[in-house]
Amino acid sequence: MRSPLLLIFLFFSFNVFAQQNLRGRIVNEQTGDPLAYAKITYGDKEDLSKIDGSFSITLTKNETQLSISYVGFETQNFKVSKDVEFVRIKLTPKIESLATVTISSEKNKANAIIEKAIARKPENDPEEKLQKFNFKNYNKFIVDNETAALEMASDSTNLEIGTIINSAASYFSEKVSRFYFSQADGLKEEVQALKTAGFEDPVYEILSLSVNPFSLYDKDFRIFETDYAAPLQNSAFRNYSFKILDTTTTSRPAYVIYFKPKRQRAVAGLEGVLYLDTKTYAIQQTKAQLLGAIKLEIDQEYKYFPDENLWFPKTQKITIRPGNGDQAISVFGGVISTGTLQKKESILNNILAPGRSDPNLFLNVTSTNFDIQLNSEESLESSAEILVKTDANSREDLFWKENRTEILSTQNKLSRQRAERLIKEKEVEEKISFQKSIATGYYPVGFWDFDLGKFFKFNNYEGIRLGFGGKTNEQLSKKFSLNGYLVYGTKDEVFKYNLGTSIHLNKTTETDLKFNYTRDIVETGSFNYLQGKNDFSIIEPRFVNINFFYEHRTLSSGLTHRFGSNFKTELRLSKSNIYQIRDYSFLLNGQEFSKYTLSEATFSFLWRPFAKFLKTPNATKLIEKGYPKFTGQITKGISGIGGSDFDYTKFGLLVEHEIKRLNQSRTEIILEGNYATGEVPLTHLFHSLPNSPRRKGILRRFSVAGRRSFETMFYNEFFSDKQAMLHIKHQLRPINIHRLIQPELVFISRHAIGDISHPERHSIPFKSLEQGYHEFGIELQKILVGFGLGAAYRYGPYSLPTFDENFAFKFTFHLDI
């Protein structure tokens, strides 16, 4: 054990004595302000200061000549000894013009250059200029502690695993991919090899992280969960100010343009420099940084292809460290380490992930493109944006040696070793599995995943609804699962239950054969899509005040199947015996039906044409929602089969669209249409998701607002056999009161119109929506954790006589985890 560690110690010791790190800061002598991206020349090397004026360079000689230059300031030249550890350099301002810049314009010369770079984007952006291209990519992803390696090497007696465990975080992965681009399909990735240190099963989540923007030509680009304005988008001058720092003297000279955000509080932006080719105005190189809750650094380099006269992205390095917001770096939402990365801070994050971050912690991602083929006709035949090859997780060492674009350093190998030990010792793999279950509404215990939505609920009819339910997981079987629940209402004193099974015919296409028997209650007039639904939610606002149910006993069988990545379907055959809880009869052909049998065939689909997916050998995962999305369903009630009493057809289509902006404002549009024809009892007609109890007094009607419900519409007020609903929500950018309190102001407009063909068939009175229903709402969301307040007002043809009756006051609850 000691011999290898001694060698490591000698290796680090040799390097320490052979070279010296010189740190420093460059400032304006008159104001003391830091000078961002000042040029530091030493020997035959060059470097730039960071946005806070700091720099760190490595000296290998006993004495080194330094030259510090910055546009508009006198250049400083001096010698520094290797024994010096820190220098503070003050540059004196002067009036200076750049003779090498020959753009003739009375305007700001930097702005003129940027204007030309934006105008030339169609000629310089590979994704605009080329019809097709592909390239290989090697990617290395590390989360580690900068001091851990030296601590291990310098103390050969301290070899306990405790040293590893006490590290703040550790993660190490490598990936080899081939990317394919076409104008029709965009940029797609085929993952050919993947290694995640310490994990027995592949960690596919790492593939969905938006870490590496392809280039800065895009309108905006995403790093983790934050969208940044790109400096060469059409609105660049609204978001950035520009200044010329220098021109390079290489074989392909470049303007060095400094860019700085103008509206950092409104639009997320980076501060940095662009190296723009003096002939083509294409990007040759980019350096960008951000100092705040995190410290972010991006370095991009491009390679010139003379035949195409094109600069193509070649290498990229992203480094993130904790900043002044005490946020730790995490990969899986706080599993490997505490805190979240680049998410807006909230009280909830501090509750879930308390503690301060380690200042020595860092995240480093290096990415290198190679084997670049600019006009190849090859393409990736996959509907998913990321496709993982079947053998990606079992590649031999020879494959990695042939495709690594850099040799793993000694520190890389130590990071990988620490990651393997830490992940196993802290059972990170098990925690990730647990987190996945919780995110979908289940709590795993052994082979059984408990359904969190079944433990406790409340409504006006059942009172407190207590119970348990869930499904088996892969610990029992990978070929099938059992599911079910048992609940009891303390007010109606009736047990309800479900028993079912899913046989997994094909995991890749999510083809499952399902059988279920259910005895429960359902809200009258509700329309539930088989696909696109989310059964689990922390709070179901409408459920509390529902008082009009019917009982059903349903035997069903179904088949689910995913076509490609973005089209998921379900076919279900069912027979239901319906019993009324309230006094209701369906009147048809001189008969009254309070009990009846329905045999139905239902086809449901979820289509997400603009979403992005990750396709693994065993599953398809959504990695970016993408809008609009479409959910549809058609149900055919067939009389005479299985004793069914009625014949009818029902249609439903739900279209959801969301527009997100760089200034953090957001607009959500939901359009839904329902139509039924034939012999349809009230239980299977449509309501418009009313969410106001019929009580006198505003405070007595106080409840929790829903996502697409009408907050001023009374329960059981309207029923239709044809209807259309429109919901428009516009959220302004968060109000920055405090870093932990940033509420969001939302304006809401809701509209519905509908009709009923045969109201005489139903034994109870209700209104139609033929004149159109309208309400306006305003919400102040996320005042504290996820809670907020809202109000809505009913107007138009169905408005009521008094203000009190038209007004609704609401709690809101929106939780982002």
Q: Any key phrases for this structure?
A:
45 strands; 817 residues; 12 helices; 19-stranded mixed sheet; CarboxyPept-like_regulatory; mainly beta; Immunoglobulin-like; 13-stranded mixed sheet
What does this structure look like?
It comes from Salegentibacter agarivorans. The protein has 817 residues and is mainly beta. It has four domains: 16-91, Immunoglobulin-like (Sandwich); 109-434, no CATH class; 443-498, no CATH class; 507-813, Porin. Helices cover 12% and strands 45% of the residues. The strands form seven sheets. The chain has a 19-stranded mixed β-sheet that branches. A 13-stranded mixed β-sheet has the order 13-14-15-16-17-18-19-8-9-10-20-33-34, sandwiched between helices. Strands 3-2-5-6 form a four-stranded antiparallel β-sheet, with no helix packed on it. The two termini are 44 Å apart.
